[in-house]
């Protein structure tokens, strides 16, 4: 079964929990920037999307729920 990484991103009062396959992307600053841009293009808000500090989780099962989106970039 695939494992996932999860990180929370915020824009104003909005929050998205973004997840991606652990074996497809390396968690680094470049990936975070790509996700912030991708969120801005797909979920536009008045303010830019930014990562929430200390929200990163790895080796997780696929999440479900409100405000959960998959990044496949």
UniProtKB/TrEMBL annotation:
What superkingdom does the record give?
Bacteria
Q: Which organism is it from?
A: Thalassococcus halodurans
This protein's name: Uncharacterized protein
């Amino acid at each position: 079964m695939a494992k996932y990484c999860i990180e929370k991103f915020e824009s104003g009062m909005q929050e998205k929990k973004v997840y991606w396959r652990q074996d497809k992307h390396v968690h680094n600053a470049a990936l975070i920037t790509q996700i912030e841009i991708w969120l801005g293009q797909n979920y536009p808000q008045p303010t830019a999307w930014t990562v929430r500090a200390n929200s990163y989780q790895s080796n997780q099962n696929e999440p479900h729920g409100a405000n959960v989106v998959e990044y496949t970039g």
